[in-house]
Design goal:
mainly alpha, 3-stranded antiparallel sheet
């Protein structure tokens, strides 16, 4: 029994049929290394498999890698939620520290006596120490418990 011939199209005709940019399609065909299956007076004809692969994104290995990374991101997010770590602890600590510096600049620019500024800065320093202690406690909570046999 004779095997049926697979249909083939030129890049221009296929691009017009499915509504994609011809130049983009040709670039993707080159990226995936597609070779024409035939050539006639209308131009090089490519297999349907290569044309669809080029039209839908090109490189299958790159798509698998993208999918794997997306799945890893989802798992990382689920783990963070399970740990009740909705924001990385270090990022949160940096935000609080930057707020402290901003507040300090505002206090120093206030048109009040220096002794009042010193009092406010002292209070801010105590507050920063409390924030540091809370941050340290959160960092300890975020660490996974040691496994039996780990030293």
């Amino acid at each position: 029994m004779k095997r049926a011939e697979t249909p083939s199209f030129t890049a221009s005709r296929f691009a017009a049929l499915v509504g994609v940019d011809r130049g983009h399609l040709i670039r993707k065909l080159e990226e995936i290394g597609a070779k024409p299956v035939s050539e006639d007076g209308r131009g090089a004809a490519f297999s349907m498999r290569h044309l669809f692969q080029a039209a839908t994104g090109g490189n299958a290995a790159a798509e698998r890698l993208r999918k794997t990374k997306a799945e890893a991101d989802v798992l990382e997010h689920k783990l963070a939620v399970a740990r009740k770590e909705y924001m990385p602890v270090q990022e949160c600590a940096n935000i609080v520290l930057n707020c402290g510096w901003s507040i300090r600049r505002v206090i120093l620019s206030l048109p009040i006596p220096d002794r009042e500024k010193d009092s406010l800065l002292g209070d801010l320093q105590k507050l920063a120490a409390e924030w540091q202690e809370i941050g340290d406690q959160l960092a300890l909570k975020a660490e996974p418990p040691p496994q039996p046999g780990e030293d």
